[in-house]
Design a protein that fits this description.
- The structure is a single chain.
- The chain has helices spanning 11-31, 50-53, 64-70, 77-90.
- The chain is mostly helical.
- The protein starts with 10 loop residues before the first helix and ends with a helix.
- The relative contact order is 0.16.
């Protein structure tokens, strides 16, 4: 999701995700005539140690990600894995 919405303190991270998004969209279009599917996973907040490593808990400013983690709205890695697998299987 960071590749779709600009966010303060995540400029480089968001830019790399935006690249992955755009590359995937283009690759999917290029490979579609050959029957090859390309799946892009954009899960949003996931309950890993990323928030801790990024020091979101110490950030005093407004942060959508910080709010999501604080409200317990982050998905579990297992939930994301299941959703990713289902999406992959659907093509």
């Amino acid at each position: 999701t960071a590749g779709l919405v600009a966010s303060a303190r995540f400029a480089c991270y968001g830019a790399t995700k935006a690249y992955v998004n755009q590359f995937t969209f283009a690759l999917r279009a290029e490979l579609k005539p050959f029957g090859v599917t390309v799946t892009l996973l954009t899960p949003g907040a996931v309950g890993t140690r990323f928030a801790e490593a990024a020091r979101l808990d110490r950030f005093g400013g407004k942060s959508m990600m910080k709010d999501m983690f604080a409200a317990g709205k982050a998905s579990s890695p297992a939930e994301i894995a299941v959703a990713a697998y289902r999406g992959l299987r659907r093509g």
